[in-house]
Write a structure and sequence with these properties.
Blueprint lengths: L1 H13 L5 H20 L10 H13 L4 H20 L26 H9 L6 H16 L3 H5 L6 E2 L4 E5 L5 E5 L2 H13 L1 H5 L18 H14 L10 H12 L4 H8 L4 H22 L4
Antiparallel strand pairs: 1-2, 2-3
Helix pairs in contact: 1-2, 2-4, 3-4, 5-6, 6-8, 6-11, 11-13, 12-13
């Protein structure tokens, strides 16, 4: 079965073009499933059935996994069985009639516009690293890119004169994202006054670089945004995606249409974007409850 898993993961890379992070997620989920089969002394994938998968899901529930995590595990298993069926490794797909558990409608944490402004003004723009961080945060809020997209953004993929960049999202799908004037001007200052100093006459292809001439990392960004949130006295629990969430929420609050926001975020399914309409609705409810005399 390990051989079949290797074949499946290779298919995800070659045929589907999935990112390393997504690939790792599939791999972890399926290794866990195969380990479960081993505990049940099932050595042939053809010997599994819908009851096998349901029993595994029940085990995950006993372990206390959330519906979201269980849904992700089941999605990985379904994709695996679909591949095995289409590639003629098995005759029947046992997951066809298994329903995915409903995910909790957890609303993303967003900053209000005053908090965003405070965060963006916190880096010291008089130092090369501070100017880089200010440009990084400004571009992140201006475009709503995923952190993984912005840290790997090639210098050649950004056109400051035309005011747009080319991003590669999940599945290496290309999309065009506009950049606001404030972000354009700050990136120009970074490219002129900070990036050459950080590179020390060396070259690399990334827009944002470290002093060691490498691209920034997700872990490095996590530390930066936590540091600046603390300095800005923001009490909310900020994650690497907080500015992306805030970008989408603020666009919708100010009248942007859902389809345009979906395209800028790179969501394949518009239902992923609709969560931000709930965020704005919740905000309106809070305002109503706070100020209406009958609330």
């Amino acid at each position: 079965m390990e051989y079949l898993l290797d074949q499946f993961l290779n298919y995800l890379v070659v045929e589907r073009g999935l990112s390393p992070n997504t690939l790792d997620s599939y791999s972890r989920d399926l290794i866990k499933y195969l380990e479960y089969l081993s505990t049940k002394d099932i050595k042939d994938i053809n010997k599994t059935s819908d009851l096998t998968v349901i029993s595994f899901i029940a085990t995950l529930k006993k372990e206390g996994l959330s519906n979201r995590s269980i849904a992700r595990n089941l999605s990985s298993i379904k994709m695996f069985y679909k591949f095995l069926t289409e590639d003629h490794h098995i005759e029947n797909n046992p997951t066809l009639n298994i329903e995915t558990p409903k995910r909790e409608s957890k609303l993303p944490q967003v900053l209000n516009m005053e908090e965003v402004e405070s965060l963006l003004q916190t880096p010291d723009r008089n130092t090369p690293l501070g100017l880089r961080d200010a440009a990084f945060l400004e571009l992140l809020y201006a475009t709503g890119l995923r952190v993984s997209e912005i840290i790997s953004l090639p210098l050649n993929n950004i056109n400051l004169e035309a005011g747009y960049l080319i991003a590669y999202g999940k599945g290496s799908k290309e999309r065009l994202v506009p950049i606001g004037e404030v972000a354009q001007n700050l990136i120009k200052k970074y490219l002129k006054n900070a990036r050459p100093i950080l590179l020390k006459n060396k070259q690399n292809n990334y827009l944002f670089t470290t002093r060691s001439n490498k691209s920034m990392t997700r872990q490095g960004f996590w530390k930066l945004i936590k540091k600046y949130a603390l300095a800005a006295d923001i009490k909310k629990n900020i994650t690497p995606h907080t500015l992306r969430h805030s970008f989408a929420s603020h666009l919708l609050e100010r009248g942007a249409d859902l389809r345009s926001v979906q395209m800028m975020l790179g969501h394949e399914d518009i239902s992923s974007t609709q969560i931000y309409t709930h965020v704005t609705t919740e905000r309106l409810k809070k305002i109503h409850n706070q100020y209406h005399p009958r609330s």
